[in-house]
Amino acid sequence: MEIIFETKRLLLREFTTDDAALIYELNSNPEVVKYVHEEPITDVKVALTSIIDRIIPQYINYGYGRWAMHLKGSLEFIGWCGLKYRPERDEVDLGYRFKQPYWGKGYATEAALATLQYGFETLDIPVITAMAHIDNTASLKVIEKCGMQFQGFEEVEGCPVKTYTFNNPYTK
Ligand SMILES: CC(C)(COP(=O)(O)OP(=O)(O)OC[C@H]1O[C@@H](n2cnc3c(N)ncnc32)[C@H](O)[C@@H]1OP(=O)(O)O)[C@@H](O)C(=O)NCCC(=O)NCCS
């Protein structure tokens, strides 16, 4: 496994087409997709399509993307965290999604902070954005704990969201 970066407890790596079962396990839980404007997936082929059509092209086109996360030690897959270029908004978006047994352990904050650091220091991205559904309290808390600045309320693809930005602190 080629590691992109690690945190105290986590390893992050690129997804491959061998990971469809992991994505299926994650996105088939209705609780996990409750606030992300997606239906739970019911077929592992849908997971494979999303890796081929959405995840891998980000690595190829932009040099970053959503990365698979594993616990150090056991190497258990627990979800993903990472960056995504949104051409329709011309923004680099921070996002994360964890398997439900791993919620509430501080992993999202740990992964999000490390992703911001990697995006600013290694990738030299000038501004990273984030958004979350107004009722997704846990995600909003993670964004705010990372120190991102609230920008406003918006409706994105029919969902009411709060939007945030973080300017690269290393840019002069
Ligand atoms: C959102 C998500 C990533 C949070 O992951 P997590 O590992 O539980 O996050 P953390 O433990 O780092 O922090 C969550 C914080 O929110 C708080 N929190 C969680 N649920 C909450 C709730 N219902 N109300 C208030 N606070 C809540 C936690 O107490 C914690 O705050 P604290 O550190 O001050 O105690 C996780 O719930 C998830 O994967 N959800 C499904 C996918 C998703 O919604 N992704 C985000 C899309 S924008």
Can you put this structure into words, describing what you see?
A 5-stranded antiparallel sheet has the order 1-2-3-4-5, with helices on both faces. Strands 6-8-7 form a 3-stranded antiparallel sheet. The protein has 172 residues and is of the alpha+beta class. The protein has 4 helices and 8 strands. Helix 1 (20-27) packs across helix 2 (44-62). It is globular, with a radius of gyration of 15 Å. The protein has one domain (3-167): 3-Layer(aba) Sandwich (Aminopeptidase), CATH 3.40.630.
What's a quick, concise take on this entry?
By secondary structure, this protein is α+β, with helices and mostly antiparallel strands. The protein contains four helices and eight strands; from the N terminus they run ββααβββαβαββ.
